[in-house]
Amino acid sequence: MAAITLRPVSRCAEHAPMSEARKAPMRSFRCPGRAVLVASSFVVKAVLRTSCRRFVARRFPEWLQPEPVPVESWNEFLGQLHDRQPSVLKGYGSDVAEKWNFEYLERQMSGSNWRVHLVPKENQRFQRVYGQGIGEGLVSLMSFPEFAKKSLAADSQHSYYMQVPYTGRPLQELGEDPYGAEMRQDRESFQWLWDVAAKAALGELDNNQLWIGRGGNLTPCHYDKAENLHIQISGRKHFLLIPPEETFAVYPYPIHHPLDSFSMVDFDRPDLQRFDRFARLQCFEATLEPGGLLYLPKYWWHQVTQSIFQQNPRCRALLAHRFLEDFTGGLVERLREVSALPSSFSTARLLTELADDWAEDTPPALRRLGDTVKGRLAELMGGLSPEELQELLEGTCAGQRLFAPVPETEVTTASQGDLGGWLPTQ
Ligand SMILES: O=C(O)CCC(=O)C(=O)O
């Protein structure tokens, strides 16, 4: 098969370049811990914000009222990307919205088996990492017709959610293209994203992941190490977004736990005694309609829910245009990113371990470095005491060991850029 090469197209060239965007009138957008300047178009936004607020008020308790993510014009959107702040652009993402329904996808994806997440219907939590004692569910390979039939069956015991690569590295590694001719052609509709990525210096694209479901599913709160542009093709999705600065209010699983990029808090039924900082969480919300594009910066925590229309179980498809993950790993790189808490958290943990384990011969400079990182973390988290910080680093928050050692179990993971479990059977 010919390699799938995707070249930038000129759709964005019609729009003003970034330098123009920066000249637009500016206003302040409140974001926890900092003020970010963005340009604005007041009239449209006022309407959008009102509907967003009504929605918010229905879904969240008084103490968890998210701010809406700004819905921007093209230039403002680029400005937000440039500042690495989440933002929504309406009406850009999808020329294919009308035709990507279950019937069309079934025709175009009939030649292969595809990776589908499968969880008990009563919880519908697709946390992408499964195993005994970790999370109920699994990842299974099935044909598209089987997936469509099962996910639409009212009496099914399970919920189904497909997550497959549409372009990028996983397909190139595969060496063949499992999509039908028309769906290959559809990739042209998304090529303008390359221009967006280049303008905002988002880095190298790794893959596009296609998420397909019938609605009602929940992807629990987690963060990714990749910059992400989400395009809603059909149906509607709600994103709850939490800045990296709030990491410790969402209580990540302890480092090295299979779910260590996930929050331990059940957002629907938070245990506020155990997770008391959750009650002070500052978060944002975005609702994506077909054609909507969300910029989700790396390290931002997100919980995603799909809307469901009982009368009309249409397909909900979302394309996640995902850039190379941050695997730098180098200490210097990590320290440079000290405001991106999850990675600093690992660094602090590592340095603490070093300092503790090699008490005799740990070079003083390394110990000082550990203390500096810990100090900065405590500061960023709003002035935690050294004891509280130590508790978090050790995964013993709320005064009790949160996890017994992970049980001997096979862990099925389908998270982040790892699409390795997906194989065609033809
Ligand atoms: O759309 C979803 O349900 C999940 C998307 C997501 O969490 C991601 O792309 O990281």
Q: Spans of 5+ residues with little confidence (pLDDT < 50)?
A: 1-58, 327-339, 397-407, 415-426
Reading off the top of the CATH hierarchy, the class of the largest domain is best stated as Mainly Beta
Largest sheet: spatial strand order: 4-5-15-12-17-10-9-6-8
Give the helix proportion (percent range).
25-40%
CATH architecture of the largest domain: Sandwich
C-alpha geometry:
globular
Q: What's the pLDDT, averaged over the residues?
A: 70
Class from secondary-structure proportions: alpha+beta
What proportion strand?
15-25%
**Which small-molecule ligands are present, each listed once?**
2-oxoglutaric acid
Q: Please compute the radius of gyration using only Cα atoms.
A: 22 Å
Cα separation of the termini: 14 Å
The H-and-E topology, N to C, reads as HEEHEEHEHEEEHEHHHEEEEEEEEHHHHE
Please report the number of helical segments: 12
What's the number of structural domains? 2
CATH superfamily of the largest domain: Jelly Rolls
The number of strands is 18
Topology:
Elements: H1 18-23, E1 26-31, E2 34-39, H2 42-59, E3 67-68, E4 71-72, H3 74-82, E5 87-89, H4 102-108, E6 113-120, E7 129-130, E8 138-143, H5 144-152, E9 158-168, H6 169-174, H7 181-186, H8 192-199, E10 205-213, E11 218-222, E12 228-232, E13 237-242, E14 284-288, E15 293-296, E16 301-306, E17 316-323, H9 331-336, H10 341-357, H11 364-380, H12 386-393, E18 412-413
Parallel strand pairs: 3-14, 4-5
Antiparallel strand pairs: 1-2, 5-15, 6-8, 6-9, 7-18, 9-10, 10-17, 11-16, 12-15, 12-17, 13-14, 13-16
Helix pairs in contact: 10-11
Bound molecules: 2-oxoglutaric acid.
